[in-house]
Specification:
alpha/beta, 6-stranded mixed beta sheet, 4-stranded antiparallel beta sheet
C-alpha cells in the first residue's frame, strides 16, 4: 500500500512557567492510504497533539512530517493553510457548523475555498449528503434545526467536499449518545470502505473497534499497535483482541 504520511523523530514541547513539557517524543510513524487508524491513550498522553501535528494544524518542535509527498514541516503558515484545504478533512467532537447557514450552504462554503463552480459544487454537495444519509428535506434547514447525530454527519459530509486525502477525526462521537454515535461510526466506516483514509482519536473502545490499526500513545510515545483488519460487525474475536491489547497497554 502507498504511504500517505511519514514522520521522523517528531517532537512537541510546550513551556509552562519555564518548565519544558515534552508532549511528543521522537515519534516515527507511517500511515498508509486506505487505513482507518485509531489513536488511543490516557488523557494527556499526547494523542490529540499528535493528530494536530499530522494534519498541519499545529507545528512540531522538532522532526519532519511528509504528507502526500510534501514535507509540510517546511511550509509557511499560508502554504500550510492552502495544503490543508485540498488534502485534509476535519471532524471534531463539536461540529462547528455555521449556524446562520443552511446545511447545503455549509458544504458550499467549504467547496468554494477550492472551486468557484457553484453548480458543480451544489451537485457534489447533494451527492455527498445523500451518501451520509442526510435526507434532502434537511438540506435547507439550519444546524440548530437538526439533531446532533445529523449535524455530525453533515460535518463529515463537509469534510469530504474537497476530496481530502485524509480525514482527521477528534473524538467524533464524544458528545453523542450510543445510538447516535453508532450512526456516525457507521458513516465513517462506510466512507473508509470506499477507500477514504481516516485518522481518529478516541478514548472509546466501541469507536476504536472500527479501525483496522490501533496506535496506543503513552507519555508522548507510541507504546504499541494492534492490527485488527477490516471491520466486521459483532466480531467477538475482534473485541477480545483489542481488549487484551488495551489491558497490556495499561488502558
Amino acid at each position: 500500500m502507498n504511504t500517505i504520511i511519514e514522520t521522523k523523530k517528531l517532537c512537541k514541547t510546550f513551556s509552562n512557567g519555564g518548565i519544558q513539557q515534552h508532549v511528543l517524543k521522537n515519534i516515527d510513524l507511517t500511515i498508509n492510504e486506505g487505513d482507518f487508524t485509531v489513536i488511543m491513550g490516557a488523557s494527556g498522553a499526547g494523542k490529540s497533539t499528535l493528530l494536530y501535528a499530522l494534519s498541519g494544524m499545529d507545528r512540531p518542535t522538532l522532526g519532519s512530517i511528509e504528507f502526500a509527498g510534501s514535507e509540510i514541516t517546511k511550509m509557511s503558515t499560508d502554504e500550510m493553510a492552502i495544503f490543508r484545504r485540498s488534502n485534509c478533512g476535519f471532524v471534531f467532537q463539536q461540529v462547528y457548523l455555521v449556524d446562520s447557514m443552511s446545511v447545503m450552504d455549509n458544504l458550499m462554503a467549504a467547496g468554494l475555498l477550492v472551486s468557484k463552480d457553484k453548480k458543480a459544487l451544489r451537485k457534489k454537495a447533494g451527492e455527498i449528503l445523500k451518501s451520509v444519509n442526510i435526507e434532502e428535506s434537511l438540506w435547507n434547514k439550519f444546524p440548530t434545526q437538526i439533531s446532533g447525530g445529523e449535524a455530525q454527519r453533515v460535518g463529515i459530509a463537509r469534510a469530504l467536499m474537497n476530496d481530502p486525502k485524509l480525514i482527521f477525526a477528534d473524538e467524533p462521537t464524544g458528545a453523542l449518545n450510543s445510538q447516535t454515535g453508532k450512526a456516525v461510526l457507521d458513516t465513517l466506516t462506510a466512507i473508509n470502505e470506499k477507500g477514504q483514509s481516516i485518522v481518529m482519536v478516541t478514548h472509546d473502545i466501541t469507536s476504536a473497534r472500527r479501525g483496522n490499526r490501533i496506535l496506543y500513545v503513552k507519555d508522548g510515545e507510541i507504546a504499541g499497535e494492534c492490527l485488527l483488519g477490516k471491520y466486521v460487525s459483532k466480531d467477538a474475536e475482534r473485541h477480545e483482541k483489542l481488549s487484551a491489547f488495551l489491558v497490556k497497554m495499561g488502558w
